What we know:
By secondary structure, the protein is an alpha/beta fold. 27% of the residues lie in helices and 26% in strands.
Amino acid sequence: xxxxxxxxxxxDALQHNLARARECAPDARIWAVIKxxxxxxxxxxxxxxxxxADGFALLDIAEAQKLRDLDWRGPILLLxxxxxxxxxxxxxxxxxxxxVHNDDQIDWLAxxxxxxxxxxxxxxxxxxxxLGFKPHAFRNAWARLSALHQVEEVSLITHFSDADSPRxxxxxxxxxxxxxxxxxxxxxxxxxxxxxxHAHDAAIRGDWVRPGVMLYGASPDYPEHDAHHWRLQPAMxxxxxxxxxxxLQAGDTVGYGSRYTARHDLRIGxxxxxxxxxxxxxxxxxxxxxxxGVRVPIVGRVSMDMITVDLSAVPSAGMGSEVxxxxxxxxxxxxxxxxxxxxxxxxxxxxxxxxxxxxxxxxPVQVIDVHHP
Length: 373
Ligand SMILES: *Cc1c(COP(=O)(O)O)cnc(C)c1O
């Protein structure tokens, strides 16, 4: 029997979450953001669940090639644009749309020989200060691009730094609108947080929204709002089993470095999942795990292949009991159980995004296309 750890990818959840993005931005088109191997879920697998998107946004030409190999003929957008002049040949060959965020990329386009003029998204730096032209330089870049015979259409894009938090988007949206008011072209502004929180405003919604993490069922503004609040469903379940039980007496310790000391007699469950599987090594004591659908705390350090949990809350648990590290749990007394990836992430001082992206290669993945595996 293989090691009992596995990841499940729920296609119905991907479909549902995509429909939620449409509800939030009804007349906009959707770039399903599938960078980082579909946020750790696998490009091919998420493609199955997200085919109803209007386009796919990602970073690597290799990932774009995968989509074309899967026979996706629709739009693909390179969110960081091309990294050198030769990438433009791939854009021509694969019909990729690309972000243009600096002058080099315009120079390369101007030199590029192609029969197929490109669709580009010109990026304005409205305050994030990572990629993009400063507002005062934007018009000039737009004019340069628009004049190139290599360019078919110029769209306008920006990215929000605080869509998930109190600072919000108004200051950046204002800069964007002020400096683009008289420029033609489609607009794209919203990531997941802005799609969920601000896309009811047509000026913010624009022509294309760019949801990422919400499609995978995590909340972009946890803990202010969780996935239930946004009516999102987890697209990934990481589950395993108990492969060992230990009985501790007061004073006994668990695992490397003896981080945890039992204060009274205690049953410990040993779970087949560790940091080599992508589980965060820095998970502190108290990080939640479900055993047979019951929430229990991690005790002791996460090791490469195992974690240890306190079974006090679930005395019936034993060898082979089902363990949910995150995602959908088993049905218990007619109730479906769930452990939100954002909840686990928060205990570990990170965000759901990082945990899902870190799922390791060695974890076998099963695609589930109906509700309830
Ligand atoms: C990653 C990314 C997104 C999606 O962000 P989420 O927070 O996952 O929705 C949107 N736009 C750009 C430019 C990105 O890099």
